[in-house]
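User: My collaborator sent over this chain with a note saying "see what the structure looks like." That's all I know about it. Can you take a look?
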Amino acid sequence: MSERNPYPRDLSDEQWSLIEPVISAWKGRHRSVSGHQGAYDMREIVHAILYQGRTGCQWAYLPHDMPQKSATYYYFAAWRDDGTDRVIHELLRCQVRERARRLEDPTLVVSDTQSIHAAVGVPAATTGYDPAKRVPGRKRGLAVDVLGLVITVAALAANVHDNTAGIVLLDQVAEHTGSTVRKVLVDQGFKNQVVDHGVGLGIDVKIVARDPGRRSFRPQPKRWRGEQTYGILIPHRRLARDYEHRPSSSASRVYWAMTHVMTQRLTGANAPTWRVAQAVAA
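Assistant: Without extra context I'll predict from the sequence alone. Here is the result:
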């Protein structure tokens, strides 16, 4: 493959070194019968997945100097289905927490949900209408730690009640963090059903209510981390709507977006913003 000019969000050598061992180990376990290693560099496959996540383009609109749609989707789907995307994400999450002088797994997490529009063509069987937010599409649930790092993701139909989303998130948190999580903070959209389910898992679920005497917005201590993480995900345009036919693909997009964010944090790289562009133009 010929050399190409880098795109703004390509991984640096230092960033690629953080996830390359996992990708190389996966590739070593999935050799073809003939021993053929494929026509594409795995780093380029990852770049194509990250490029699509950041720009929001369709599979067929990937740039011509990147791996073909069929190859990129093959690896995206394979890593989604066997959990490789999550293995990479968890590896980086643990490193970010350790750098912040925290244990690998948290003791407190924050759960929140977000209803997002589904794109045309997304199967109706996996979508619904959220009457409270007047959004037809899917409900994205996140459980994050106090650093704003994603612990787990749930992608459900938008008409699913927050209680159901909360229970799914609790089960996933208990499964993936063992017994370390002792407390979960949620907003008023979650009800006592979630609290009772947490008791059965040994997790104290606390519903954080707004101050009824305050009309203006005020971030709630610790629980605002959930909102902050949604804000961090906004620049990844593939997450602006739910374009994925499978809910599992929707969850995978979040893990890849946060993987990209964490490689930047671990290497001290800052994402360019419109303010930087304006300053250069001036």
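A starting point for your reply to your collaborator: Strands lie at 108-117, 128-130, 135-144, 150-157, 183-186, 204-207.
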